[in-house]
User: What shape does this take?
Amino acid sequence: FGLLATTFIILILLPVLLIVMNRFKVYAAQLWNGVKPSYEAVETATPGDGGYEYLWYVLIGFGIVAAGLSFFA
Assistant: This one.
């Protein structure tokens, strides 16, 4: 069972999560900069990237909203 679960995680779940995170970075960059970058431009291996400060602001914002919702719920 362990080998089957590991195979599922490596071959199916990992690529799906990588794609989801890439799309999230593209949409966060679009919200922050106002221009939708290409999917390759938000990867960390691309030269001349402008940094990911916008991603931290979006994640902190989501955290504050989630904490507020859990506090008032």
Summary: The chain has two helices and no strands. Residues 2-33 form the longest helix (32 residues).
